[in-house]
Structures are given as structure tokens and as C-alpha cells.
Amino acid sequence: GFYGLCTTPLCIMTDLAEYGNLYDFLHDENHREQASDWNLKLRIAYDIAEGMNFLHNRVPPIVHSDLKSPNILLHSLEPNANIVAVVADFGLSKSWVPV
């Protein structure tokens, strides 16, 4: 969840992503068996799609502009968990306003 923010310097406080980012998870030899689990792969993909859908359906829509595996944080490795993956790092994001 979201806990708060500071404006100077700009920072946001959220839950700890216990399992780090998707890039490190996929390249870690210790997680090779878990990374090959199709139920987990599908759940991560679903959570990413849900996050992007949420951003794109805001008014105005938010365009992330830097979606990549290091910007996906893993909160769980259990496919049936409430939240498995979240989209992070909005440093390049922009509100899209039609002209």
C-alpha cells in the first residue's frame, strides 16, 4: 500500500517488495525453478497488465514510458497471493492529454 510522500526531496513510501524486482528474480540461479513456474509467470503478467490498465484509465491517462523488468517489483512468489507484482518507477511517466 501507499504510506506517504515527501516533496523535498521527492520520494514515495510504499510496502517493501520482499522479492525485489523481476529482472533480478529472472536472472537469479536460486530462483530458477520458481521462475519456470507457468502459474507464477501468468500471474506476474496479469498483475502487470492490471497495473498498466489502471494507469491508462485515469483521467487524464498516465503513460509509464519505461516499462521493463527492473521496474516490476515482486511482493510474493505465490501465484494465488493477493498481490504478486506491481509496476514501479514512474520517473519518466507523463499525463497524456489529447490535443
TrEMBL record:
User: Protein kinase domain: which residues?
Assistant: 1-99
Q: Where is the signal peptide?
A: none
Name any one GO molecular function: ATP binding
Annotated keywords: ATP-binding, Kinase, Nucleotide-binding, Transferase
Is this entry keyworded Kinase? yes
Q: Do you know which InterPro entries this protein is assigned to?
A: Kinase-like_dom_sf, Prot_kinase_dom, Ser-Thr/Tyr_kinase_cat_dom, Ser/Thr_kinase_AS, Ser/Thr_Kinases-Pseudokinases
Name this polypeptide is given: Protein kinase domain-containing protein
Species source reads Vannella robusta
